[in-house]
Amino acid sequence: MDSRPRLDCVRVRVMLAGRRAEAAYRTPELRVTAGRWHRLFCFAAATDSTESLTRDPADECLLLLFHDYDRPGPGRSFSTVRMRPARRSRLSPEWVRTRDVDGHTFRMEADWTGEEHALAVTLTAEHGTRRASDIKTGRIMPSAIFSATQLRFIRECADGPVDLDRHRLLGPVQALHWRVPLPMAGFPVTARLWSAPSGADRPAPREVLDLSIRVEPAGAEIAQIAFETALRDLGLDIDDAHDLEGILTPTTERAAVRLLFGC
Predict the structure, then answer these.
(1) What Rg do the C-alpha atoms of the chain give, in angstroms?
(2) Rounded mean pLDDT of 136-162?
(3) What per-residue confidence (pLDDT) applies to 240?
(4) Please, what is the end-to-end C-alpha distance for the chain in angstroms?
(5) Mean model confidence pLDDT for the chain
(6) For residue 170, what is the DSSP state?
(7) How are beta strands 104-113 and 9-17 bridged, if at all?
(8) pLDDT band, residue 247 (cuts 50/70/90)
(9) Which of the residues 204, 236, 254, 260 has an alpha carbon 20 to 30 A from that of 246?
(10) CA-CA distances (angstroms) from residue 96 to 5, 6, 100, 240?
């Protein structure tokens, strides 16, 4: 029996924001092929008195998302509970053994963005025709978006108590997913373009492009070097960090969420 801790794969990511995202998006080698749009919403904790977003330690490592497809009529929707960085000490043997079952997808991945390496554990559930408008109009509470399995996952594995019904729903952000036409450094590349429209508190739209590969843990360091080298060979600026409205880019997942949703 394999006694090594479970790790499904290493996800190597390069995340670019603002002008860098636009430049990469227009690169012919990264062109969109058979892309699919959906809408992405984020839950963020708020206080009763000010409705301002909090920085509770339990929330810092917990990302709560809801996504549906931007089209009229019936369609699929999903809720995602993502813990990053996750702590193995919070995961019982039952959760470590969990696989895809009953409309749920469970992943334990090493998530690498530049020099930032973290364990990410994600539990996604499919909900059929449920819509974000049901939350925004108050027809259902935020906790009703998540499945019983997801609620148990939060209760048992988060770093502290999480009151979902005191969370606000932010968004939407438009998200376009596609597979890059040709492999890079021998690896299939998944691209995700997140776009937040301009508004009263956001004079210009914000964009983040997430380019990623999934590789086996053995040899992941070499794969990361090869992938980043291939992006540089396309003329993309993925090295020096620049300040973009208080966010450093190339950016991490948490910084990208704050940039897009303002949380």
Answers:
(1) 18
(2) 87
(3) 60
(4) 44
(5) 81
(6) E
(7) parallel
(8) very low
(9) 236
(10) 9, 7, 12, 37
120 strand-pairing partners: 109
Q: What's the average model confidence in pLDDT over 175-190? A: 94
For 163, phi then psi, to 5°, come to -95, 95
The residues spanned by each domain of the chain are 9-261
Using the Cα atoms of residue 95, residue 97, residue 103 and residue 109 in order, give the sign of their dihedral: positive
| Residues β-bridged to residue 107 | 122
| Residues written for the chain | 263
Residue type, 176: L
pLDDT of residue 122: 95
Closest to 11 (Cα-Cα) out of 211, 226, 244, 180? 211
pTM of the model: 0.85
Q: Which of 14-18, 56-60, 186-190, 198-202 comes out lowest in average pLDDT?
A: 56-60
The region that residue 219 occupies, defined by phi over 0 for left and psi between -120 and 50 for alpha, beta otherwise, is left
List the beta bridge partners of residue 187.
184
Supply the CATH classification number for the domain 9-261.
2.40.320.10
Three-state SS at 259: helix
